[in-house]
Known about the structure:
InterPro entries: LysR-type_TF_proteobact-type (IPR058163), LysR_HTH_N (IPR000847), LysR_subst-bd (IPR005119), WH-like_DNA-bd_sf (IPR036388), WH_DNA-bd_sf (IPR036390). The chain has 312 residues and is an alpha/beta fold.
Amino acid sequence: MLIKRPNETQVVTRLPHLSLLLAFKTVAEHGSFTRAADLLHLSQSAVSQQVVRLEEALGVQLFVRSTRSVSLTSAGHDLLNDIRGAFDELVVAFDRCARKGEAPTLHVEAEPVLSAFWLTPRLKQFTQRFPGLQIKLLLTTQRVEFPREVEFAIKWGDGHWPGFDAEFLLGLNYAPVCSPSLLKGPKALLLPADLQHYQLLHDRNADDWDRWHQQFPEVPLNFQRGHVVTDSNVLAQLAAAGHGVALCALELVESQLRHGELVTPFPQMTMRHWLAYHVLTRRHQMLSEVATQFVAWLKAEAAAADQNPPRA
Length: 312
């Protein structure tokens, strides 16, 4: 490939063969001719010769070689920084082209409780529109992994994640829930004041009950006592089993409420949570067509759920 510079007649730059650049990049990133040879399925001498040819073509020394180690020169560092992004883009382009004949795969990172109790019951509505679509869910809690193949994430938080764009998806309404058995017997849970006689169940800490008590201060409540778990699903199961009263998102226990496994003793005492679910995307990176349609579908489902919240 020849590149002629404007206003110059004889100055011509020839782009080195990509195999020379690949050999250099592999040695530079792994700090070893032997390791690079293994990765490239070449002999060590072949890799060394390719690097030498690149150095001769550029007229600079790229590595400082010794019997025990190899390190980049200043020119080598500059070259690696300049070509690394281009090579990564080539890999992505070839991977995308190679997968055009395959069924599309959508990689999504999401919270486990939302996936289990809100997304999964609705998912068939979307996959019926894309019969060949494969969805791979990466489930993470209280962290964002966002590996390269993931296009977007659905995370619970305040809307601020450094390095990502976040768009509001779904807010949740919290209310006390418990087993129907707690509403019966001589110590039945009939009035809000009766909460002081039952164990409170906490999701990770007492913050939710604290906020709820701030909204309903007339209820005598020691919100610091009770059992603590770090899984919202287990929290609902504990409440259904009669271990106490949990403060749960009605949108996420809708099935248990509908089947009578859980009840809301005080349906009028519902709190809108200060956190919410958001869709996270990488900045300055466009979504694929199927990911764009999936996010649009998610927003429509969330808007419908917000307009018709589950009855407490």
